[in-house]
Batch of 4 targets.
Target 1
Amino acid sequence: MVQPLENILVLDFSTLLPGPMATLMLAEAGAEVIKFERPVTGEDARLTEPKIDGESIGFAVLNQGKRSVAIDLKSESAKAVLRPLLEKADVIVEQFRPGVMDRLGLGYDAVREINPGIIYCSITGYGQTGPKAAVAGHDLNYVGDAGILSLSRGPDDHPTMPFGLVADIGGGTYPAVVNILLALMARQKSGQGVHLDIAMSEGAFAFAYWAHAEGVVSGRNIESGGSRLTGGLARYRLYTAADGRQIAVGALEEKFWQAFCNVIGQPPELRDDWSDPEACSAEVGRRLGSKPSTHWEPLLAAADCCCTVVKTPAEASVDPNFAARGVFDRKLNIAGKEVQSLPLPIAPEFRSSRKTVGRAASLGESNEDYGAEQPDTQ
């Protein structure tokens, strides 16, 4: 079938993670993505470890299937290269601090004069306006400012780091893709483009919707690890088995909780984790810690009570369920070696049918195609 974003041209001025993952999703759905990078070194992600024969795995995973143009955006020659692309582009994704693209002559107002239908997506930490618009930050800062880092921060002497890049991906990449697609639909009706102001710190709020209801609307104080979804109840916690493997107990509903308690032999007087959560969780921890995860895993699976052994990334990549669904079937070529491609939340019906997605372009590989000077690699 025809891919939904076929014939959509995306100009990608973003770096590192949020923007590149967004344009990767668009490319997977059929868009043509041209990635613009600084000459000589390219974007910083090309330099990151680990590498295969000198090629960054992290960069390749996020930039497969895109074209690369190495260009100095401050140069006069850049205008001649970019003008025809700006005239026909559908989407621009940029990730500079507010005002940078304006100073380069590539801000929304300037591009809109050339192309009124342009969908211009700016991804920043704190948005295009406001007192913190120009403040530097990374994912850790954004989730901290959004209040969600405080919900499960661990002990003071060994704070717990977030397991995933919630603000970068959940607050940046996903809102960017969703709003770009909405803007494309709106343009079909109006013919007009739009400037999308994506703030990663704001996008992070949705990931703790319950904290908004409890800590903001209701005005209750939420202690670290004290809420029902951050370890405040015995039925929704991580426990360590005798072999050191963790068991994720997610038995929120009463029927699952009772089924779990039956498996581990939790005494009736210690099953009420609402009235005395600490005593209840201590006994659960003692019982799960008395035997290895290999003992508990089949019993918990048979009970179907939302309790599982925590897998490593390597174990997850060969999980039979994911294998049956073809999650890791698509392959990526890095320096001539075929590896698993990053699973993306794009329905198979909207992606190309080929199993090998391709590779990340070498720096400036497409310069000649767009009339740009060949990049200096020295």
Target 2
Amino acid sequence: MIIKKLITVLILLAFFSNTMSAQQHSKTYEKKIDSLISTEFGNINEPGGVFLVAKNGKILYRKAFGKANLELDVNMSPEQVFQIGSMTKQFTAVAILMLEQQGKLNVNDPISKYSKDYPNGDQITIHHLLTHTSGIKDFTKMKSLSTIAQKEMKPEAMVDFFKNEPVDFSPGEKFDYNNSGYVVLGYIIEFVSGDTYENFIQKNIFDKVGMSHSYYASDRKIIPKRAYGYHKKENGFVNKTVISFSVPFSSGSLMSTVDDMLKWQQALGQNILLNPAETQKAFQKYKLNNGEEFTYGYGWHLKEINGIPDREHGGSVFGFKSMGVYIPVEDIYVIGLSNCDCHSPTEITRNIAKITQALVKK
């Protein structure tokens, strides 16, 4: 009887010791991440951001920093909605692959099939648009952009704005990050689906995945928990520059939360939206005409962290910056969203991923 009690006591001691050790480990990890983020987002009276870390779908870290609205003195919360800028491209790329899966298009189709009078459209394919290898002029580098920045532009008019500009290079000749290509992809999504880009993304992705706090951006709609965007000037902060979201369109006009972006990442991993073959197209490296491989798939940069392959993408739009990193082998996802384009989450997010890798290996 005494021996049984002794064994029970030893088991309980071991359990509590392991529990305390895990808790201590968790606190150390949290302090490391807090310290890392605070270097850029530590001022509680400035615009801030939200960061989330998940491993195997389980949230390890989720915190908000700074203010969601300076004028109303509202503290940031983890539920805040941000514009995600070019992370929109992930959704546009997956929408194209969904349409291919339905047999409505092929990524090797020339874009002349969908825009008959597009210059050199017989030589530029959907694949070229997805991989930033089309050579068409990036509209964000055009001086005349300011003439349309606040106008409501239909997708066709937006394509017309840049399509007759001189090309930068022949299709497939080089990789050069390009917003225009993703605007053309949005136009193709509308042409093929018979629906607006906004509705297509809402019905086929947001609703299906349960991303109930994600939207096509609007300055007119009432969006609960919206974080307002800011710029930093010499004399302090100012409200973000107002643009028409029909201009960045399918290259950068979506809004989301860190929680919804985790749902997005899990949906991709579980093949909820795409079958494995289509999913693989998004996450493989491709080659230029000369056989040289480049580090971009469809909507994601394909790089490495500590020598381990990752998938990542950032975003920058007036008043906001974003960054997401996913390490498939370790199932680690890190997402950082900022409501000032003066605070970049890019390197912080990558460094959080490195710290999390180290934690996993212990």
Target 3
Amino acid sequence: MKTILITGATSGIGKSTAELFAKQGYRIIICGRRTEVLESLKTELSQYTEMFSLKFDVRNLQEVENAINSLPEEWKSIDVLINNAGNAHGLEPLSAGNTNDWDSMIDGNVKGLLYISKMIIPAMKERNSGHIVNISSVAARQTYVNGVVYCATKKAVDVISEGMRLELTEFGIKVTNIQPGAVETDFSLVRFKGDSEKASTVYAGYEALKAEDIADAIAYCVNAPKHVSVSDMTIYPTAQAEPRTIYRK
């Protein structure tokens, strides 16, 4: 039975992915920053499979190292790493940007992905098998006004995914880069710092993707035959033509 580690598993795409893989019978390690939510999800999904939870912040290297090193021996062999944790903060031009927001996005979306991957990859290379799924965004494909830093971090995820593939294919390790379009989760609520009215306008007038849609796509890639490796996947809601263009009713 394969073991899957999912970062940012307490909400949105990460939570839906954990739910889907648990129902498919994989052993799941869920990671996040909120102990109560982690334990609740662990209890809920334990009816389907073996579950383990790790509380840490991917932005903190010491926390990442301590968490991964704390895994019991029977949980150390991770077959699939899903780098889902990330964030978007603020929607201002660079000249008015909040540098704390920039740090949060760069630390979470880029450095956090690197920290956790560095901890997991060596064992995959030793076993000559594994699969890494990185969650990027269509924001990597086209920069938009007032989203420069966020777009840059997601472009970095694309580049890191490509670099991983170049370094790891010879070891039998698959690398998949997923670029979701507009997905109705807490993403916009976080970006607008809890302003639910502003967040709701992002998804008004059309049917956005759901977290479950991205979980389905991830599962397709992970469940593909051994000789099949999905390198990149871009997923839009039907109403979205490109990152900046959504047709609303």
Target 4
Amino acid sequence: MVSEEASSVSITIYRAPGRGDGAINVNWPQGYALITETRTVHLPAGDATVRFEGVSEGMFPESAMVTGLPQGVREKNRDARLLSPQGLVDAYLKREVSITRADKATGVSRTQDVFITAGPDGGVIFESDEGFEALRCTGLPERMTFSEIPAGLSAKPTLSILTTSPQAVTAKLTLTYLASGFDWQADYIATVKQREVQEKPKMDLFAWLTVANGGNQSFANANMMVVAGEPNRERRTDQVRPTGGALIIRCWPMQRTHQVPYNPGYISAPPPPPAYAPMMYEDEGAEIMVTATRRSEKMMDMASPVAVVVAEQEDLGDLKLYRVPERVMVNAKGQKQVAMIVKPDVTFERVYVANAGNYNESSAAISYVLRSKNDAENGLGVPLPAGRVAVFENSFAGPLLAGEGALPDRALNNEIEVEVGRSSDVRLSVVSTRQSRRKQSWRAVVTNARDHPVTFEMEIPHIISGLVRGVEVIDGVPTWRVTVPANDEAKLSYAIKLR
């Protein structure tokens, strides 16, 4: 008996292990999911085979559990061969089929029995009365006919079980299994807000929960959750995906080389686009007036996305669980986004950062980061899963993308830092001034061409000789931290130990 679909489904998705802040593999996501389905079946008395159709094609069959059976499961089988043109040819390899095609001489269709000798990868070769031929390589219509559907081919990925029931019964079963081909990530949008000079800089932080399903099965009306963190999972071999799909037909040229027509159009440049037609006016002598409206001096604020449904965060041991409060459709070969985090008015600090080892006497632009602390005082105070961050700044032309950075997993009270880009207004040069056997002297000069002070930090990846005013050890690295006045510069002289 066949259970064609689930009456309800729940999907819990885990991120790809070790992916970090990289993008999701859209062809076949490298994460996994725990899927729980509820199905109702009618069992006869005695032995019965139950086929669960429409399971995820990335199912790990060894993880499948079925509850609700009168006497449990005696045997499980994963049916990985799908009903498709490729699957049919593969199943009929070394067997006889019928082929209908037009006669080369008369053009009349005729049907004959042929023997498939090779395929489906790399083309289909069959043996007929005329000898060995390749399918669909004559240029004439051809159609293959199969006498029956081979055993073991199913239209959907299927899990079958063997069970026994003492009497006929209608059972409500729960099927739970792990499946590959899923993944998720957080995608942040940080919108820097306008402020007065005396005000602290603020931004609106919004995060999308992006879920990817790389399989060919959709899950309708699903209760969806994702898990943040790094659960331990042993590495295993790649899961065998169901076979199936379209036939790959390969043919060879029917002429000799000198008979293949030469088409220079494949290698010549495309013709230039036609010139625009001149603008026509009713009165050639009419005076043309051009007017303009001066843009307001006030910057245009970017409106943050409006969240209608927001995922709810829960604790799952030492991990974090995000539950979508409404049932959703998880489409095959698709991605879905649901609001995950909405935090307006997050205070932050803009810091220009550099590593002294990456600079020389030539003045060079410096990277800048947006830095904050994940606590309620700064407008946050929620766990932040790893993801990409798009930073928007407001301008007279409206909101513009300032840069993109990455945010690793951040727990409560952790420091948050997103590198946005490089500034051409704040520059650094580091020059060696003197060297002896035991130490080397350096001078660093940072310039600020902006009309307001900036905060600058420079890491010195060496052992400092003596005490240097303005240099402190941060996370084990000597760091120069200074506020550079508007349209001014700051200098630091220091020495490092060579031995």
